[in-house]
Amino acid sequence: MINFLNLKAINNQYEQELKDACSRVIDSGWYIMGQELELFESEFSNYCGTKHAIGVANGLDALILVIRAWKELGRLKDGDEVIVPANTYIASILAITENKLVPVFVEPNPETYNLCLKNVRSSITNKTKAILPVHLYGLISPMPELMAIAKEFNLLVLEDCAQAHGASIDGKKAGNWGDAAGFSFYPGKNLGALGDAGAVTTNDDELAKTVRAIRNYGSHKKYENLYAGINSRLDEIQAAMLRVKLGYLDQETERRQEIANRYRNEITNSLIQLPQWKKDEHHVFHLFVIQTKSRDKLQHYLMENNIQTVIHYPIPPHKQPAYAQWNSLSLPLTEEIHQQVLSLPIDPTMTNSDISNVINAINEYGK
Ligand SMILES: *Cc1c(COP(=O)(O)O)cnc(C)c1O
Prior knowledge:
Blueprint: H1 7-12, H2 15-28, H3 35-48, E1 52-56, H4 59-72, E2 81-85, H5 90-98, E3 102-106, H6 117-123, E4 128-131, H7 143-153, E5 156-160, E6 168-169, E7 172-173, E8 180-184, E9 198-202, H8 205-215, E10 219-221, E11 224-225, H9 236-246, H10 249-266, E12 288-291, H11 295-304, H12 332-340, E13 341-344, H13 352-364
Helix pairs in contact: 2-9, 3-9, 4-5, 4-8
């Protein structure tokens, strides 16, 4: 079986280092808010090129905490509108609704799956206060253009970087373009912990200080609470795991790019629509997503050929039962994408012959 993503094989590559890091934490006797977290925060901010990185419990919390902090700082308030791609994972939307702000769902650019600049502009109203671009599948959104729009209309920008660790434009990385960003280190992400973890990045000192307080009960000083905060801390064991894995992130990204380039160059079946990206775009391929009309049939065929695939995602957020108030919205492009997408195996530990097997099976499909 060719796995979609073999986490066991991925983490096995670093087994001894991970175990040593784990032992270091166990032996330290200090498990929350210690040196591993401090070091990871400084190593990750260094990697992203940002002034601050703040470890939190998961990617959803990272996004929630930024919006919450902006509310505490008086930069956002209940009912403000946030422009967000309609074709995203539900966490991007939950971060908005959890804070009692209003998501404005925008149809994507069908070639990149990311925010369409024209649709962003036409969705701006006098209630719009922020844009939440999602760097979907590992391709960074058109950030220079989005930042220009944000400046023109005085909007905050929160990047959802959960799928885009290390993606960049002109060498400037995801997480360093907007006013703030949220990262997830869920085990299956490009930089994955061995449990839940996330981070906020920003160059804004005041925002960083506020997020740091809110993630720890709203406490800026021990036993003094400035905000009615939450408990969303990144523990020492996960911080230690992430410090090991961060050292291999670029190497794993390169392998993902090799796999993606082979898929793009060698899949020739006309029933399959391949993703588009430009040579100068540093795409980190969290996912390699193809489209085809009879998606479920292709998935079934690949499974019979021992190739595991995943659908990201089968139901768009506005069609979820959780968001009944938006179920009748019509977003035809987003809905079509959700019916046609299929994610091929893109595991840095795949062998060259695994990649060839996937390519051959897809090229034989429908013959
Ligand atoms: C995974 C993901 C999240 C949420 O991250 P968690 O760590 O699972 O909370 C948010 N946005 C996107 C686009 C994601 O893929």
